[in-house]
Structure formats: C-alpha cells, structure tokens
Amino acid sequence: MTLYYSICFVLLMSELSLFATIVCPMPFTLRKRLFHFLSENPIIAKIQYGLKITFIFVAVLFVDALQRMIRIAQEGAAAKAKPEMTDVRTETNYAARRFYAQRNLYLTGATLFLSLILARVFYIILDFIHVQEAFTALQQKTAKQSGVNGEADEMRKRITELQRELDASNKGGRDFETLKKQADQQNKEYNRLADEHNKATGNVSNKRTD
Q1: Domain range annotation of the chain
Q2: What CA–CA distances, in Å, run from 164 to 154, 159, 161, 176, 178?
Q3: Which residue intervals are annotated with compositional bias (Basic and acidic residues) in the record (predicted)?
Q4: pLDDT for 100-110, tens place per residue?
Q5: What pTM does this model have?
C-alpha cells in the first residue's frame, strides 16, 4: 500500500473511532462538554480545516481509483473476448491489479462516505444539545414565573380577605350608628309623651332627659 493510501486508511480508522465515541451512550453533561470542546476549541477548528483539505485529496484518489477500476474492467472484458491470448501469468497479474483497484476504490469511498455521515451526525447531536439547553432554560424561567404567580395569587387572596374584614367592620359601624339614631329618636319620643302627660295632669317638670 502506498503512502497516500496508508494515510487514507489511518484517516478511516480515526473516523470510525470518533464516530463510535460520539454515538456511544454517555451522561448528558459529559456529552455536552465533549461537543462544546469539539465545536468551540480553536485547535480543533484548525484540525478540521486541515481535514477538509485532506478530504479533497481523498476525493481525487477516489476518482483515480474509479477510473482505474473501469479501465481494468474494460481490459478484462477485452481479454475474455480473446481467450487464446491469455495465460496464467497474465490472469494472475490481472487479478492482482483488479484487487488493488477495488481495495483503493472501497478505501477512499468509505473514507469519504463516513466523513459525510460523521459530520451530519455530529451537527445533529450538537443541535440536540442546544435544544436541550434551551428547553432547560425555558423550564427554569417557567418555574420562576410560576413561583411569582403563586405569590401574586396569595397576595390577591390576602387582599380579598382583608377587604372582607374591612367591609364587615364598616357594616358593624353602620349598625351602631343606626342603633344610636333609633335610641335618640325613642328618647325624644319618650320626652314628648312625658311632657304631654305632665301637661294633662298639671304636673310640669323642669327636668328633661337628653
């Protein structure tokens, strides 16, 4: 295996390891720290930029391996059309070339495909973490508002009770004033009747009951 295909193989193994790491079960806090580190760390950002350039070269290798695979397939078809010109050495050489072409095609294709899947899964999980954080903040805000609303309801109930007590006190005061007025009227009526009785009997009294 040549150097660039060896690098492609190492890249493929790294992608598989990273994919297994981000999809494995772990606590939400740990996952949040890991994804924030991968998405916000400046060193990781530089590594991602370098990997993007590397994947461009991997795409070039994929196209080259595909062209070789097509060319070898065409040579095999031409060899089958002329079976008298083939021997064991030629067939062995053709099988080896086809094997290497297929290996390079699968290696580069799997590396590119896994890079797309890895990027998509990474951003989906990152969006899920952001949504979960926003949902938690909304829950805390709602809980605070519920507490404030509960306190406001208690204050309203207390104000209603005090208002009822005040109304009852005012009603009691009005009843006392009514009784006082009735007593004064009865006292005046009693004095009037007493004066008439005294005049009728000829006994005039200078004492008046106020």
Answers
A1: 3-154
A2: 15, 9, 5, 18, 21
A3: 183-199
A4: 888 889 999 99
A5: 0.59
